[in-house]
Fold each of these.
Amino acid sequence: MKQKRSLLLFLIVSTCLIASPKKAIIFGVTGQDGSYLAEFLLEQNYEVHGIRRRTSSSNMQRLSHLTKNERFFIHHGDVSDISNIAFLIKEINPDEIYNLAAQSNVQVSFDTAEYTANINALGTLRILEAILKSGNAKAIRFYQASSSEMFGKAQEGPQSEQSHFHPRSPYGVAKLYAHWITKNYRESYNMFACSGILFNHESPLRGKNFVTRKITRAVAKIHLGEDKILSLGNMDVRRDWGYAKDYVKAMWLTLQQDAPDDYVIATGESHSVREFVEQAFQEVGISIQWEGTGVDEVGRNATTGKIIVAIDPKYFRPAEIATTHGDAAKAKRVLCWKNTTSFKELVAIMVHADIQNIQNKTDKKEVIQ
Ligand code: NAP
Ligand code: F7E
């Protein structure tokens, strides 16, 4: 009799487990990380609810391969609208919420400082408030995509969770508010609220205005004879560039821990924009010869002598971060996270994806800022 009862209990529990996968909400699902995270969570058997903002032209390109998955749902929403956020959280009743929604372009944040604060800073506050008032705050785990831009004019390097913050852009300042308010709700209300201090991470899905993708697209076009010259801003700045697929795994790992905490996610290697350019051209067999200095610097194709890289001062920023360099030792130790993709591999993945995009005519025309 006792054995029968245990068997029945086992069957009920396992049926429930099979029948109800974990539910996750992703704010910012249409972006680079949103797409990779949705894909990753679906592979982990989650039910994924992506929040898509209304735009005049489609923002679903990065998700087209997922829309037929029966565990993937898209809802309209916007982090500037708290009643919408509260409604979605009540309706979906998620186990985990990932906030990737942001005006994520640092240069644009200088022109749209108030808007950037509203989305990146207050957007995070709105989600936290909605969780707190949902009546289910203890059961929901929250992830905030914080940024290495918060370190800004860093006093020391590499930067860890203990490093001093000195943001250098309206974007960085807004992200710092979001970072602290996440920590504050954790400490004030005992919420499972975490941040990942994410250093730059790139991929073939990276927005075309960010420097890595701008370079790999231009290299692909120059290689295929569709373009002649790549114009850039400051090529001396150095970034700690990783692969986005590795970084979304860290987001998920963060929410699987026993206790909420914040983690730096970085490769620990820093490379200049100039090195990125050289490596990308190397992938298509072109060596660069640099000539001149400052805004007069040019890069020539070492074989043909043609100028293929030039400087355009319009890409310089009012304030710049010279170097970012992260120390992800805590994430490695606690989350068992590791970066699996080298700088050279990342550049190769992006250049060859862009060559394919252009050859297959899947590279949509878009104005480059
Ligand atoms: P991304 O490609 O620019 O994606 C941003 C996402 O936010 C998009 O889905 C965008 O929608 C959405 N969004 C913008 N405004 C919104 C609003 N008002 N309401 C709802 N959604 C809104 O950025 P990403 O590279 O994937 O980065 C993901 C997150 O990580 C961002 O918060 C970013 O700031 C942060 N982060 C990124 C990096 C990095 O190197 N990639 C490093 C540190 C931190 P649309 O598609 O409609 O524009
Ligand atoms: O610039 C320099 C530029 O726009 C990288 C976002 O995901 O990472 C990203 O922000 C560097 C800057 O990324 C051009 O001045 C030179 O120093 O690719 P980016 P970002 O500003 O580092 C952080 C961690 C985030 O959180 C952000 O959301 O490259 N640079 N020439 C250029 N940058 C651009 N965009 N275009 C150029 O022509």
Amino acid sequence: MRDMTGPGNGGGRRKRQSPRSSSPRPGREVDRKLDQHETYEFGGPFGVLAIMLGFPTLMYYLWICLWFYDGQLVHPSSLDDIKPFLATMWTHIRQDAYPSRYAWQVYGGNILFQFFLAFTLPGYKQEGLPVPSLNYKTLTYNCNALYCLYATVVTAAVLHSTNIFRLTELIDNFGHLMSVGMICGFSISFGAYFFAIATGSQIRMSGNFLYDVFMGAILNPRIGSVDLKMWAEVRVPWVIVFFLAVSGGCKQYEELGYVTPNMAFMILATGLYLNACGKGEECIPQTWDMYHEKWGFMVIFWNFAGVPFSYIYSVVYMARTDPAKYQFSTLRYVLMFTVLLTAYYIFDTANSQKSRFKMQTQGINTFRTSFPQLPWGTIKNPTFIKTAHGNRLLTSGWWGYSRKPNYVADWVMSFCWGAIIGTATPIPYFYSVFFITVLVHRVGRDFERCSAKYGKDWERYCDTVKYKFIPGVF
Ligand code: NDP
């Protein structure tokens, strides 16, 4: 590794560091401060209340537009029309999105199955980052998501081909499944909050009940070897997203006799994302969600309902619409697939480069090599800035071009998930519009935190890696 810190911080090979010793005293003081609640985010208690009520409402509205109105954004035409309009909306929800017995069985069955697999299957053991609130203890993560994914795919294929459970039904029951997902999202958020209070495991509390339910109370919820926060982030949303896309493909095959390239694109795109979460699972403990965010509504609702039921509106649209409305030329298909695969490559390798760099900093030099290993996933002789805090900031690989190359690539993929429908309906672009808002907000929070954590070293890092997102542009 090459150190770019400047005077007094020579580069060259370093001895394995004990994680406990990697944060010198000044760093510990900053970490302690970062683990205190200081300011309200997301507009405080009123802001989070608005989010908690607004998102489910928006999700129902967008689903209704897609399912019943050919993807058009319907609205009341006059003030007098508002009441009948709302009554119609409610009727759609009551009739086609009530939490049916089928939805409870399928959604609940999948959750239990995913938990059972996570709990029982062997996995790659990964040490997380030292956790300041646990006196810099590192937690071990049993990374078995890939085995769980393979087991789930085989089980689903057997159930589908033997007609025990037809995957086609998933997309037909989208509304019902979404309601069950939302109920689970809400109940688990409140449950996690009360559990944290009852066991005294809460940290960074504001004292405002609603705000703390939203941000979460507990940082590392665990049942046995299963880290619930990581399990929910990987095994719940992306598995549902992938199988809803597969379900859309099965439905097209049954009704049309073929699968459109647009639907095949979505199966590939969701499959790549799901596989990436599994194959790079050992990199997830290093991410902001794992070591900083608590397990609250923001994360839980999004994992159990938000991601699975709002990221793949293009699939929902295609499952209900004549393919003639969203057919592309061959050249455009080639372009779409090329952009998706290029963005995926950058996303995969950028996340891998940073996580492996952080692992090297912890003294871990042997990495897991699950399929597919892409070239440039590990940087040989990386350059970095050594901070007074003790951590190192990577300045080479994709991370030499911008401070958030992973976000840019991830966002391009999200845009493709909508663009695969063209201009037939704006709704599938919801994911990319929402996602860019989340990412820009998150960058603000993240950089603020990094600036507080690294002080002048962060400024030096920003001078070295000038661009936030796109080199030469922004
Ligand atoms: P990052 O992986 O960018 O992690 C940010 C943290 O990494 C910083 O707080 C800092 O922490 C550390 N860091 C930042 N720059 C450097 C550097 N140059 N060298 C070393 N460490 C650095 O962000 P996230 O954890 O938010 O995201 C991970 C992935 O998950 C991204 O690809 C993102 O797009 C994806 N994601 C996807 C979502 C979805 O819904 N599809 C939602 C959220 C994320 P410190 O220095 O304290 O270690």
Amino acid sequence: MSEKRTEIDQLGEFGLIEHLTKNVKLQHKSTLKGIGDDAAVLAINENEVQLVSTDTMIEGVHFNLMYTPLKHLGYKLVATNVSDICAMNGTAEQITVSIAVSNRFPIEALEELYDGIKAACSVYKVDLIGGDTTSSLSGLMLSVTVLGRAKKEDVTYRNGAKEHDLVVVSGDLGGAYMGLQVLEREKEVFNANPNIQPDLDGHDYIMERQLKPEARVDVIQFLKELDVVPTSMIDISDGLASELMHICSQGKVGCRVYDEKIPIDGKTSMTAIDFNLDPITCALNGGEDYELLFTVKQADFDKIKGNPHMTVIGHITDASEGLYYVDKNGSMVELQAQGWNHFDKD
Ligand code: ADP
Ligand code: MG
């Protein structure tokens, strides 16, 4: 290591990954895709590929145990990993789970965590096949590696979007972020006065979006049934704007998405307005919805049209046209992505 010291926040999360991995050379023909997508893609036989992805969750960064039930946390840990396999248009089959835990946690707490992990394994039909257990000086760290499978011709990468393709999202957006806002607010109220009961009434939907998200295995199944292979796909973990930037930068294209088309549940909008936030901003920049963002050829429009789980929000343009969303007044606003600056000090 040289004397030079450069702060991580100069690069941001994605810049850092790029910086650390830019000289990595693939040495095996079986590595069809290494770094840079929702999962790596490995050759296993003539017709199928293996998919592999890892995600880590750290206490105090990704979850706060003051308001996160351990059972939900275990479920979410598996769901978010399965979501990365969905984003490749594949099926998750196995996971390994690694935990680092301080002696602050009794065995009963870890049993609860595993109840959630096992519940998700049963819902998503994945086998828990191993992992690692170690001690931690502070807090709880959880890491899952998920293995999946897809037919070769079905695999969808982040980089396949072409001009004129339609931009589609599953489900609705912004709910997980608003759920987090409510939980954080009630945490502050509780810290100020522990006698006040948390007021979570009417917030079930957004709370569930935050605490117990689902991987959209159903959407992958619908796409199969409709005989649609998206031209590109990513899961929405960091907010729509950030994921659109990945799709466009990797595909070397631009996009136009329309404010009024972005699907936002009424409960999400109402809560956003209560918090003096613009619901669209929450959908664009709030993370953790774990919906799918994908592009399809225009010719496939008839197949997905009217499907209640999928909404066309815009289209892909030439790169020279940039990345914009069109607001209700018809003004073009350039997309900015907060997810690109995870290490920002503020
Ligand atoms: P996702 O949000 O879908 O989990 P990430 O943004 O975490 O994806 O990662 C983007 C890509 O960078 C993935 O291919 C991932 O495997 C890779 N990656 C992330 N961190 C590292 C690292 N420390 N070393 C090597 N590759 C990494
Ligand atoms: Mg992903």
